[in-house]
């Protein structure tokens, strides 16, 4: 049990800060176990304060106080009160600015939560978002307090030759005892969550970027010496992002220096600290032989994301943490646009929607559902969710769809101009969109406050050249929101003629081939005229809204759309619907004990895809992909993990059997060594070929074993090597143990590749997987203090291996609960993420429900439970 019930924070309770801190002068005497922090704060009463109190309360946790003074006068013990979470000075001047000086000690080595100042390998680094600065010193740790920071770092020169902080370097020098100092100044006022420092033995790769107005910006990427050869792609990605933001949003970089530091121990992907991004190594390091094509894309995406935050997040920041989606949803939308422009917009959109529907829709349908602007939290770190990020991005995308690219850009221009240097709200963002476009978005605002995934049910009627679509919208109840109001939903649509060509139609008097209609009522009719024949409708093109679409279609109609829809998203979607429908039929057969038979409509559709010589090979690989087991489970009233797996494997095997010659031909046609080549066609060839390999593996035949083993042994790039190893591991290939062993020996010094080795085994569908996972926990390379490693084994098993995690005997559940309890004391944020594996317990049969809730209760009853774990576990049970 927790020691005390943790408090809930509510959006409705927001009040402006009573004090502001204009300037901060920080001095750090850095040491692994005993870092001394001196903070000088220039404080004044906030003219907008609503309180009459004379006290000043600063947040602080896990700090050892050395001394405190007000305007140079040391305070006595009776002048202030110290608690576990705050320092309150009873009386401070209300009528004039004053100065607070604090001295305190922190222990970075003991900090395994990786929040505040901590040790990663041998370097010191910080993570302050959301509320980590209070673990460095006492402060008004809230995003609406923005200050100018000056930071002086003092450390041993041999152990910490590189000393970095935000902004520009303003001085450096040597001190006695082998120590040195470096001072930094950030000219931009910022909330303390954007503060950062890094100290260590780091090498760096340098480049430069000339901005549109001709300013030269120094770019530096800092890594440990053995990683210097893996920074090229990150640097190029940074330059691409800088140019793209100028061209697409007219936004230019503002400091003279942009630094990125890659660290091994990091709770999430990366952090946008002003001028000094700190990154998980996973999103920086890449070399063709160590990183896959997807890794290359993710690196570019995350580098872009953090860079784009410089405007959407840093120059204009959030008033409070309930507004998180203001910066995250918007910035995810920006990074999605960027990645689409850099590769294939069609493929990028499908990948994003696939993830949203598989994972965010599940969150929206479960006990942790919340609106993109939540109304209450216990631990804000638990709200860095798929809903706030990915659904948040969909909401911004809908504004883009409704206002058009030009209108959206005008709205953004106004938003940045109006709010530069301010801490604002989601409301301010929508208001800027309205004002810049002269439109009214009252109903649209409900997307910010209403949780849950809306369902659209569509019926069609055709008569004398006129098609009527009747659309009903509803939204299932979510925690604390039993009733839902109709939302403003943009529906992009088009029609196909019998020969597959686009059918022209008239909508509201205008002739067109595609239209975006606005659904605003609970039930609404849309009429389309001047059609020469009854068309096939293509609805929700590009996935124009984050909703579940229900429309009656037979398999032939889906196959038709899969062949002809000109909308790349809907073409892929038709294939997914077709396969899903067949899989659900097979699941019913399995549950009723009937024999399974292959579906000829699907075989012929896949034959056509394999025969197609279309240019975008990555897209073709996606057309061949089967819906994820998690996505299929999300559509079942009671998830039957075994039947889903069996049915999906049956489809894979039947397709492989019926089309083995085609799969072999396409494989051979595209299998060539193009290591180091990352243009769209080389990446596409690898994707398509490896998709074929995966089907051929299902045949469990000596020649497919040989094909996988040969590719594994001869591969010179990680994409091909890991795809082949996956084929070997997910089959009865006799060389499995040997391949796994040789892969480990080859890559044991590359942490990120070793992570892949763990993940591959944790997500394997073969029967021995759980025993393997248990023995991997004892592997010398496994470490509970390294989040990437925990995610690669514990996270991968519990979140990406439904078949084995949900094993009937409950072993998987007990395993996860044990890990959560272990992590709770080491790293609450990571522990809370892992509890997520239980959140969907209501979706399973009663036996599994009982097993999962037992483990959740065991977690809730653990002594010294962190706020993070308590919130997720108790809300999951509620
Ligand atoms: N803003 C950070 C996330 C911080 C998470 C704190 N628990 C990374 C990002 O979204 O860019
Ligand atoms: Zn972000």
UniProtKB/TrEMBL annotation:
Keywords: Aminopeptidase, Hydrolase, Metal-binding, Metalloprotease, Protease, Zinc. Residues 452-551 form the Peptidase M1 alanyl aminopeptidase Ig-like fold domain. Pfam families: DUF3458, DUF3458_C, Peptidase_M1, Peptidase_M1_N. Its cofactor is Zn(2+). Aminopeptidase N is involved in the degradation of intracellular peptides generated by protein breakdown during normal growth as well as in response to nutrient starvation. Belongs to the peptidase M1 family. This is Aminopeptidase N. It comes from Methylomonas koyamae. The lineage of its organism: Bacteria, Pseudomonadati, Pseudomonadota, Gammaproteobacteria, Methylococcales.
């Amino acid at each position: 049990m927790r020691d005390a019930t943790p408090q809930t924070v509510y959006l409705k309770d927001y009040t402006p800060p009573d004090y502001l801190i204009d300037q901060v002068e920080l001095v750090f005497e850095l040491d692994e176990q005993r870092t001394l922090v001196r903070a000088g704060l220039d404080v004044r009463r906030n003219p907008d304060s609503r309180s009459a109190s004379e006290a000043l309360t600063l947040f602080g946790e896990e700090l050892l106080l050395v001394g405190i003074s007000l305007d140079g006068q040391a305070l006595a013990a009776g002048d202030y009160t110290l608690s576990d979470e705050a320092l309150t000075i009873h009386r401070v001047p209300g009528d004039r600015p004053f100065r607070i000086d604090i001295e305190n000690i922190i222990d970075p080595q003991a900090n395994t939560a990786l929040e505040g100042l901590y040790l990663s390998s041998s370097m010191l680094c910080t993570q302050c978002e959301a509320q980590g600065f209070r673990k460095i010193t006492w402060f008004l740790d809230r995003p609406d307090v923005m200050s100018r920071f000056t930071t002086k770092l003092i450390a041993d020169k041999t152990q910490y030759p590189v000393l970095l902080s935000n902004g520009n370097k303003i001085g450096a020098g040597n001190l006695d005892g082998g120590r040195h100092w470096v001072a930094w100044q950030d000219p931009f006022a910022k909330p303390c969550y954007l503060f950062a420092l890094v100290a260590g033995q780091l090498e760096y790769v340098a480049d430069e970027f000339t901005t549109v107005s001709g300013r030269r910006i120094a770019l530096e990427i800092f890594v440990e010496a053995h990683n210097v050869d893996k920074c090229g792609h990150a640097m190029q990605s940074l330059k691409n992002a800088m140019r793209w933001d100028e061209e697409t949003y007219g936004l230019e970089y503002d400091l003279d220096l942009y630094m990125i530091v890659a660290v091994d121990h990091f709770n999430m992907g990366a952090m946008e600290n002003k001028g000094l991004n700190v990154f998980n190594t996973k999103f920086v390091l890449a070399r063709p032989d160590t990183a896959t094509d997807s890794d290359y894309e993710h690196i570019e995406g995350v580098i872009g994301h953090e860079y784009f935050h410089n405007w959407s997040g840093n120059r204009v920041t959030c008033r409070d943490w309930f507004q998180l989606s203001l910066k995250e949803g918007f910035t995810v939308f920006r990074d999605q646009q960027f990645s689409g422009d850099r590769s294939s917009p069609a493929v990028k959109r499908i990948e994003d929607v696939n993830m949203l529907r598989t994972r965010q829709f599940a969150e929206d349908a479960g006990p942790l559902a919340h609106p993109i602007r939540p109304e209450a939290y216990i631990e804000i770190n638990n709200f860095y969710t798929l809903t706030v990020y990915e659904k948040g991005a969909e909401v911004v995308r809908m504004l883009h769809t409704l206002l058009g690219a030009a209108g959206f850009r005008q709205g953004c221009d106004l938003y940045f101009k109006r709010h530069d240097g301010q801490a604002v709200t989601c409301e301010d963002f929508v208001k800027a969109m309205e004002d810049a476009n002269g439109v009214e978005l009252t109903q649209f605002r409900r997307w910010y406050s209403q949780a849950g995934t809306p369902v659209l049910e569509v019926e069609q009627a055709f008569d004398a050249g006129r098609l009527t679509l009747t659309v009903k919208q509803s939204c299932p109840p979510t925690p604390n929101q039993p009733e839902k109001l109709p939302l403003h939903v943009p529906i992009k649509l088009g029609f196909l003629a019998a020969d597959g060509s686009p059918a022209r139609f008239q909508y509201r008097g205008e002739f067109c081939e595609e239209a975006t209609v606005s659904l605003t009522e609970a039930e609404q009719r849309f009429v389309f005229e001047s059609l020469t024949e009854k068309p096939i409708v293509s609805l929700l093109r590009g996935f124009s809204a984050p909703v579940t679409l229900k429309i009656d279609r037979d398999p032939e109609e889906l196959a038709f759309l899969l062949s002809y829809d000109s909308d790349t998203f809907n073409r892929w979607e038709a294939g997914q619907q077709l396969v899903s429908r067949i899989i659900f039929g097979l699941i019913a057969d399995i549950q009723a004990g009937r024999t399974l038979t292959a579906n000829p409509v699907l075989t012929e559709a896949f034959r056509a895809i394999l025969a197609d010589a279309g240019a975008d090979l990555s897209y073709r690989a996606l057309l061949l992909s089967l819906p994820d087991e998690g996505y299929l489970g999300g559509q079942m009233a009671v998830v039957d993990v075994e039947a889903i797996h069996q049915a999906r494997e049956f489809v894979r095997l039947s397709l492989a059997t019926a089309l083995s010659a085609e799969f072999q031909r396409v494989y051979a046609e595209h299998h060539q060594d193009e290591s180091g080549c990352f243009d769209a066609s080389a990446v596409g060839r690898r994707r398509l070929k490896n998709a074929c390999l995966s089907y051929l593996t299902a045949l469990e035949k000596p020649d497919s074993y040989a094909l996988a083993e040969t590719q594994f042994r001869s591969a010179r790039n990680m994409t091909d090597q890991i795809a082949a190893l996956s084929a070997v591991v997910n089959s009865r290939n006799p060389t499995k143990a040997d391949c796994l062993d040789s892969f480990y020996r080859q890559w044991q010094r590359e942490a990120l590749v070793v992570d892949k080795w763990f993940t591959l085994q944790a997500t394997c569908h073969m029967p021995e997987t759980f025993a393997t996972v248990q023995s991997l926990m004892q592997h010398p390379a496994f470490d509970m203090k390294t989040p990437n490693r925990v995610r690669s084994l514990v996270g991968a098993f519990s979140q990406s291996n439904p078949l084995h995690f949900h094993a009937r005997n409950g072993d998987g559940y007990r395993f996860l609960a044990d890990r959560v309890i272990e992590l709770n004391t080491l790293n609450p944020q990571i522990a809370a993420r892992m509890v997520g594996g239980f959140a969907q317990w209501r979706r399973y049969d009663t036996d599994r429900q009982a097993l999962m809730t037992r483990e959740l209760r065991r977690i809730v009853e653990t002594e010294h439970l962190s706020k993070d774990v308590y919130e997720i576990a108790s809300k999951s049970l509620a």
